[in-house]
Every structure is written in C-alpha cells, then in structure tokens.
Write a structure and sequence with these properties.
The chain is built from 13 helices and twelve strands. The chain has about 325 residues and is an alpha/beta fold. The strands form three sheets. A five-stranded mixed beta sheet has the order 4-3-5-12-6. A five-stranded mixed beta sheet has the order 9-8-10-7-11, sandwiched between helices.
C-alpha cells in the first residue's frame, strides 16, 4: 500500500495560485472575496509549512522566488487534473439544434422553452430560426419543423406535428370599434394583413362563397404586407387589421384575450407542420425525446391528419419546404 504523503493546505495552494497570477495581494483578495490580510496569512502559513519563501516582497512589488516559479507549474497541473476529473463526473449536456421558421419560433416554441428545459435539463437546445431549407449536415441541424407535405427528401424521416388550419383573427378592441366582419359591409372596413403565404383570396372565397359567386365581394380599404406570419399576428394584436394564422399559433393570444377569431371559416391550405430528421440522427435518443415533447405539447384540440387523409375544409396549393 503506498505511503500517503502529507499535503499542504489545498486552500493555501489555491491562494498561492491566485497570488502568483496577480503578483498582488490586494487583487488576489478581490478575486477570492476575502481580505488582503487573509491572503497574506495563507501565504505565510504555506511558506512556513514548506520551509521556504515563495515571494520576495518589495516596498511596491511582489516577485516569485525561483522555488515558487518551479512549484507553481506542479500546482496548476494538479488543479487541472482535479478539474478534468470533476468534469468527467458531470455528463456534458446533449446539444441539439432545431431549425424552425421564425413565426413558429416566436409564437409557439419560445414561450414553451421553460417547460422543455424543465422536462429535459440534460438537452442543450439550440434554435435556428430561418425560412431557408434545413441542411442537416452543413448547419448541424438535428431536427427541423417545416410546413410541407409528403414525400420529403430521401434519407429523411417526417412525422406530422399538426395540421395547419388557418383562421382569421383581430383584436377585440378593433372588432368592438368596427363591428364583426361577418357581413360584407363590415368586412370592407377592415385592413387585411398579409404574410408571404397570402392565403386571403382562398380564405375569403371560402368564407363568403355566395358573395364571390355573385361578384359582390367588397374590397378591403387597405392591404398591409409582411414577410413573416408572426409580424402579421403582432399587427393584429395592435389593432391594425385582420390577420390569417394557423390556429395553434394564436391559441395563447386568443386565450389571453389579445385576439378573437372572426369570420368563423377555417381553411386547410394543403400543407401542414412536420417534424423532419435524418433517418440516422446523430443523437437518436435526444431527437426522439424532442420530437415526443413537440408532439405532446400540441393541444389536443388541434386536428392532425392521417398520412393518407385530410380535412375537407378547402385546399390551396403550396410549396413544400423543410
């Protein structure tokens, strides 16, 4: 059995390391959160235990002795070994990158991140909010949430997250001011807020089928265009007009009273939200956990489509993106 050698105080060695770095008792004391006198006392005690001086103390300077210069190398390597050993006991968080559209990130994912982090503290989730196609190799993306319809690319697994059911929403204050837009005359008072999907023509055709057949559909007084659905939703909350959005994206705003659903009509536009991953993900367990959490947090009131089926609520063509 090896003989255990008596070691100097580990606290004194830590103080020695900090003083050697600063060559100043005051700065060392500030870093350690103790008094300058306590630092000096630890150094004197260590010197007494070792039986040699570690610092030459001048009137305005502090320099290390030759013995200290040799000793500090051993001490720092020892601390590094302790740090490495300690780190090995704490598993590194599993880094996952999820690529989502900016509107999905702003209106659905970010408000729920606290719940995800509580449920999966070992997963370090990194969010890439972009409308670009996800590149699972160059961008190191592990999972993407995109609007689209099967089939997706070769080598990818896609699972339906939620059907995109588009509804019209407005702020309660605006509806109170202009009246509900169910009639053509009232609808004509409302500015229409467009995003880049531009579902308004198909939506109005469905909501006012009788009027469009007769050519009596009133024109909106103003059209405002945004490049993101989230911006159109925020504009609707601010009372600037009517916006179209996926119902699950505006659920929280409706429940909080910031928005109300108007016009009653619903439109399934032919593309839905899918979770998409490589067929052989780099971190299969973590990806499966993230995918399960996403699916579990889509409210049950939102319909999902079977792989072969669809809602007969009207369809318009749309480009598949992922």
């Amino acid at each position: 059995m090896p003989v255990r050698r008596r070691l100097p105080s580990l606290n004194a060695l830590r103080v020695f390391d900090v003083v050697a770095r600063h060559l100043n008792f005051r700065l060392a004391a500030e870093e350690l959160g103790v008094t300058q006198g306590a630092v000096a006392q630890q150094i004197r005690g260590l010197e007494a235990e070792l039986g040699l001086a570690l610092f030459d103390r001048g009137a305005r300077s502090l320099t290390m002795t030759e013995a200290a210069l040799a000793y500090i190398g051993y001490i720092r390597r020892a601390f590094e070994l302790v740090a490495e050993g300690t780190a090995s006991l704490r598993p590194e968080p599993r880094h996952l990158t999820i690529s989502v559209t900016p509107s999905f990130a702003a209106k659905w994912l970010i408000p729920r991140l606290t719940d995800f982090n509580a449920a999966h503290p070992a997963i370090d989730l990194r969010i890439l909010a972009t409308d670009r196609l996800a590149n699972f190799q160059n961008d190191a993306v592990d999972l993407a949430v995109r609007l689209g319809r099967p089939p997706f690319g070769a080598g990818l697994d896609a699972e339906l997250l939620v059907a995109q059911i588009v509804i019209a929403v407005a702020s309660p204050a605006l509806v109170g001011k202009l009246g509900r837009p169910e009639t053509g005359s009232n609808l004509a008072r409302y500015p229409l807020l467009h995003d880049f999907h531009d579902f308004w023509p198909a939506f109005l055709e469905r909501a006012f089928a009788d009027k469009t057949r007769r050519g009596a559909m009133p024109a909106a007084p103003k059209h405002v265009h945004f490049n993101q659905t989230a911006l159109a939703i925020d504009a609707a909350i601010a009372g600037q007009g009517l916006a179209l959005a996926s119902r699950f994206l505006v659920d929280a705003d409706i429940k909080a009273g910031r928005l109300v659903q108007v016009l009653g009509a619903e439109l399934h536009v032919g593309v839905d939200y899918y979770t998409i991953t490589p067929r052989k993900p780099r971190h299969p367990d973590s990806v499966a956990a993230l995918r399960h959490w996403l699916k579990a947090n889509v409210p049950a009131s939102h319909p999902t489509l079977s792989p072969k089926g669809g809602r007969a609520s009207g369809r318009v063509g749309a480009k598949t993106t992922f």
